[in-house]
Design a protein that fits this description.
This protein is mainly α and about 200 residues long. About 70% of the residues lie in helices and about 0% in strands. Helix 1 packs across helix 2 (about 45-55) and helix 6 runs antiparallel to helix 7 (about 135-155). It is elongated.
Length: about 200
């Protein structure tokens, strides 16, 4: 489930030793990703993840020292999936503008899909208030990358103030994530699309 809104995926396991990925770890991460996104991180305990993944407690702790490490792995996997889905910012002005529009449309399309619950990074940050926690550090890294990518695309595309433009893109994206979950998803999608088109056209 590779998405550009940042929804959890858990489909990309980390290598374990020299023999390749662990099927149990991948299953744990996939199960946790689905549960954390659907029900919230705090609401889902380790016992539930273990039961629904069909593994033993010993297997869980062989791969993750605790729940916080599992949450970090969930967000790391989500971050990787988003980056792989959108790719790098092109160096051609017209292509960079299309890249940013395309990434925005990916976000907009996610707002209307069944089961959408907003941005998993925003959701996780709300549940982990300590900015120095490992979870918040992953959230910060993802958001920094998103804004930096939008800023680069606007700079290459010839925007007169790419730094401010990148901040505006991030604010528009964040607002759409919340509105898409709490309000009219179709309206949030249309507003985001139109606002970013105006931003990209700025010269």
């Amino acid at each position: 489930m590779s998405t550009a809104d940042g929804r959890g995926t858990g489909a990309t396991p980390n290598p374990v030793g020299a023999r390749g990925p662990s099927a149990a770890r991948a299953r744990l991460l996939r199960t946790a990703s689905e549960l954390f996104y659907a029900d919230g991180v705090r609401a889902v305990g380790v016992d539930r993840v273990i039961a629904e993944a069909g593994v033993t407690r010993a297997t869980f702790y062989r791969h993750f020292p605790g729940k916080e490490a599992l949450v970090v792995a969930y967000l790391d996997a989500t971050d990787r999936a988003v980056r792989e889905a959108v790719g790098d910012v092109p160096q051609d002005a017209a292509a960079a503008a299309r890249w940013l529009t395309g990434m925005t449309l990916r976000v907009a399309d996610e707002l209307c899909r069944p089961g959408f619950r907003g941005c998993p990074f925003i959701n996780a940050a709300a549940e982990f208030p300590d900015p120095g926690s490992p979870v918040r550090r992953v959230v910060r890294a993802h958001r920094d990358w998103l804004q930096d990518a939008a800023t680069r695309a606007l700079r290459v595309g010839g925007h007169p103030d790419p730094q401010e433009g990148g901040r505006r893109w991030t604010a528009l994206r964040d607002g759409a994530m919340v509105a898409g979950y709490l309000d009219d998803a179709d309206a949030a999608r249309a507003t985001l699309r139109d606002a970013v088109e105006d931003l990209v056209r700025s010269r």
